[in-house]
């Protein structure tokens, strides 16, 4: 039966797309200490930008580049007020930013179809069969995952990454050692947003449909859960976190088909997931895979 | 070198500094002493750009620097340590020191991927950091996370970071607090040596004035937000007002 | 359109929204300042309150008043349980503010899906309770709306009296100003914090019932009010009771009056929910301490700019 394979491939594609989101949050929060609770906003900006570009007939690569550029631009804009704020205020502010953006896209039909969203978004690779299309998506998505992973590892293993971690550890001390921390935090948000934007672009071309209701704050929380459970500060860890999240989400759907239990599997999975998040925070706050000690030379 | 003219600082109407004026000369080790609550750390925070003064001027080499942020002051050669150490806990001791060095190529995003260049510089900096670590007796802990150090070791780390940054003037907030007395003496001897050999300037807060007696060129006594006595250490020690202030505390 | 001209109705509607925000905002601002983190699970306390009233009235056939009382008790206990089982142990394990925030999201997810498991995901309505409507001249009122406003007003008066006149109120204020000092002066701050969590969750549940009775009961009920509630407590100044009340009615007025502007500009009235978000952003950027941080007497004196300003 071909179905389980397709199911697995679909799950891996989602893991990749959200894994990229988790990587970007890991740069922002895991390394720089910026609690961005508006992750979904940059995901959404990327998805819409890339969809609009490709729907206008331009190639996918241009769509993704545009998605990254526009997301980075918005990341920089949001960083202006946000990075001077205390972490809880920054979290609430970025959350509010995401909600405003969603409201605008929902109500302004002229931008991108309003409530109805955008349909028929071209895929990155044109393929003939359903199955080869899935493999195509898998390849495209994982090219991005691997590229960003390598990029972020290089960043982490450089004086630049060391400086970001110093800001996370103690901003005033970093300032006293001459670091313009505000500027670096703005850069981290812009880079993180660009990466999140590319993930949005991949999402749009994979689903071929996007609408405002796909970008609820729950996506932000899911990405946070991936980072916390997988391992804050560890890029491998957050990718594992993304996989665990998908297993939870998919697992509940599989259970629904095969198991007869008095409790709805979907509800049960999310209840367990909420508990898992709490348990990890309580008993293993560093996550499944701990941050490594980095040696630059 | 560092001139402080009539500095005032108020918090919500509470006057902490009441017109402090003093001068730190180049190549000198200058002590700032005074009982608890006299405003020593607040004065440091004002000089180092953590707080903006309510009034007054601060001149570094004749140039006004009050109101500048800590990172701007660092670039002008003024580096400080904290009374309660502020290490980067989840970075190694070595990385803590390396972070303090100036003009690192690899800290610019655009140059991160030009590894050959920054790695060359990094190698030189590691050598320098290892020398500094030997100086402050922390070389055996270089790969340890800073968060695992003891209180005294953290004080040394603070000093090491400040030394790594090639400053013109160092503001040290109780550098010997919690450090064992033998090592403290060694440290002050080293500070004295650096000041006179390398022409570095030190401005040091100390709670116990005896510590600084042999190693400082000049001393200011702060009391209730004002400088009440200044002079050579020996003179200051024997000043009636100073004795009164310290006895008053007891 | 009569809608546009009926200022009295808009004013009345503003009072309703403001009163709801008072109920929901109280617990949020108090727990934020006492336990030092924004509790996102507050949204689920709101939702839970509505569902329990539904269970009492529609399933168990209890009267409305007893249904509300049972609901407030249960929601209050859930609030205390969350504090005792999750937030306090986590804070004791040196969990950071971000950890506490995320854990509250975990608690929220757990509660939301538990609610969905018990009552299902589809929308529900109170079928056994009905609220009479009257026309007072141009004004349309229902007993529910009057109930909301009266409840908030009575609550504010009672809390004001408790805070200013009783030993408990004194202890609450002391604990919120300086917990360690309060503890040193013999106040049982653990007890105070638990009372605040109980009261905050119970009132959130009450607010949830009112909101649901006015609209419908859905699992995301609380989430819809949470961000405006954050706007209210940030505008009021975190931990400020009176600031929060003022901000609640200011936001109520702004949201309802914005409808006139939005309609006349031909823009979707959906945007009125954005007002809360804009309030959050503007307050955080320009006056992070909110209304309570503004020294109003200063405006009557000659202004001395930037004095005593602390950069860090």
Describe this structure in words.
The complex is a heterotrimer of chains A (297), B (250) and C (312). In chain A, 75% of the residues lie in helices and 0% in strands. By secondary structure, chain A is mainly α. Chain A has one domain. In chain A, helix 1 runs parallel beside helix 6, helix 1 packs antiparallel against helix 9 and helix 11 runs antiparallel to helix 12. Chain B is α/β, with parallel strands linked by helices and 250 residues long. Chain B has nine helices and ten strands. Helix content of chain C is 73%, strand content 3%. In chain C, strands 1-2 form a two-stranded antiparallel sheet.
Topology of this structure?
The complex is a heterotrimer of chains A (297), B (250) and C (312).
Chain A: H1 3-31, H2 39-55, H3 60-82, H4 87-107, H5 109-112, H6 130-156, H7 159-169, H8 171-176, H9 181-207, H10 217-230, H11 235-258, H12 265-283
Helix pairs in contact in A: 1-6, 1-9, 1-10, 1-11, 2-3, 2-4, 2-9, 3-9, 6-9, 10-11, 11-12
Chain B: E1 2-11, E2 14-24, E3 29-33, H1 40-47, E4 55-60, E5 63-64, H2 70-75, E6 78-80, H3 93-99, H4 115-135, H5 151-164, E7 169-173, H6 181-198, E8 201-206, H7 209-213, E9 218-223, E10 226-231, H8 233-238, H9 240-249
Parallel strand pairs in B: 3-8, 3-9, 6-7, 7-8
Antiparallel strand pairs in B: 1-2, 1-4, 4-5, 9-10
Chain C: H1 2-5, H2 7-35, H3 42-59, H4 64-92, H5 97-119, E1 133-136, E2 139-142, H6 143-165, H7 167-177, H8 179-184, H9 189-214, H10 221-236, H11 241-265, H12 272-286, H13 290-293
Helix pairs in contact in C: 2-6, 2-9, 2-10, 2-11, 3-4, 3-5, 3-9, 3-10, 4-5, 4-9, 6-7, 7-9, 10-11, 10-12, 11-12
